[in-house]
Amino acid sequence: MIHGDYQARLYKIWQGMKSRCSNSNNCNYKYYGERGIKVCLEWMDYLTFKTWALSYGYGVNYCIDRIDSNKNYEPDNCRWVTPTQNSQNTRARAGTSAYKGVHKKRKKWAVQIRYEGQKLWKGVYASEEEAAKVYDKWAMEYFGEHAHLNFPKWRPE
Q1: pTM as predicted
Q2: 118-125 vs 102-105, strand pairing mode
Q3: Which comes out higher in pLDDT, residue 91 or 42?
Q4: Which of 37, 59, 81 is the endpoint of a domain?
Q5: Domain edge (last residue) among 47, 64, 81
Q6: Residue 110 within any structural domain of the chain
Q7: DSSP secondary structure letters along 15-69
Q8: What is the pLDDT of residues 1-36, one digit of tens each?
């Protein structure tokens, strides 16, 4: 290996990213490759990925994050975040609301947000959309620019 990074954390992140997207034997393939998530062609080269990572905020305590979890690993859709920030970047669970952080509870819509390893309940609302906006308000409060919103163009008052 020319670059000598095969034991480095960044190299392992790169390998894991590629494996999740292309190796059907990877235990997380169903969440990535099976959903059509890919690694862009330029990042198939480790040194190109490393150059991007070091230029865009990679640090020892950071994780790679896809800004839009339905899009590929590529420079315009990735950033480096803390594990706490990364933990809130999840898709809505099947059988719940179409909105992140919202689920049905006794004919109404409940809001839950995860922050620093805890589930925080933020109330119950009559409409699914109202609940989704409440989720967005709290996501902005807790995660700021790293918040993954239901309505990215809408900003709470």
Answers
A1: 0.62
A2: unpaired
A3: 42
A4: 81
A5: 81
A6: yes
A7: HHHHHHHH-TTSTTGGGTGGGT--B-GGGGSHHHHHHHHHHTT--TT-EEEESST
A8: 556 687 789 999 999 999 999 999 999 899 899 999
